Amino acid sequence: MSDPSRPARGLSALLATMGTAHFLAPRPFDTIVPARLPGRARTWTYLSGVAELAVAAAVAHPRTRKKGALAAAGLFAAVFPANVKMAYDWRRRPLPLKAVAYGRLPLQAPLVAWALKVARDAR
């Protein structure tokens, strides 16, 4: 029998890893912040990193898992414009980099589905 909390632990680990990356290597994240957002890109990079870490913590804890997973689904949807910007900005880069940028776009849907499944399975 599989462990029902395994998808939640995986989701939490993914969010924590990405949230940490926003602080350890913020520059790549800065470049995909849409220019129409007010303020500095670095501020948005750090805010999104904090959001990912907070959501990771909420998903990790059984008492807050459902709300955390719903927040994760919302977060994945909210960062989609940054992924679109990255794909547009990288459209003339070498094929491997372009593949990464374009490959991120369809990944958002399974990430949202994963988060929603974790929310449904939460007690």
UniProtKB/TrEMBL annotation:
This is Putative membrane protein. It comes from Actinomadura namibiensis.
